[in-house]
Structure prediction request, 151 residues.
Amino acid sequence: MDLSNLKPAAGSVKKNSKRLGRGQGSGKGGTAARGHKGAKSRSGYSKKIGFEGGQMPLQRRVPKFGFTNINRKEYQGINLDTIQRLINDGKIDGSLQFDQMVSLRLAGKNELVKILGRGKLSSKITISAHKFTATAKAAIEAAGGEAVTIQ
Prediction:
């Protein structure tokens, strides 16, 4: 290999041999290969998202129904059997705070947490969460623990 046989990698150089809109003699003058009239022939044209050439767009063809409550609060649910398994594994002892839930990846730092009543709880534990189901609260207190609601 020497300087006489160097060439760019295949596909890296894309030069159109004809310059558009540079007079009739160039072969691409006049309309500059845009055709006659219409939005696409004009400068500054950009197609709107979802535009289907004047046909009714899919987003408008599909029927709409239902209702979305803008004040709805989503809670990340954590079941009692999950908490009991973490206690058995030695990852929790005595109490479970919100920051521990985040570090154990049971919930995200911006999520609200609700303790759910699936499973059995055999250990005495103090749990701090945003909400508790009635069965979960009863099971925690039956095991000698405490359910603390945080805001």
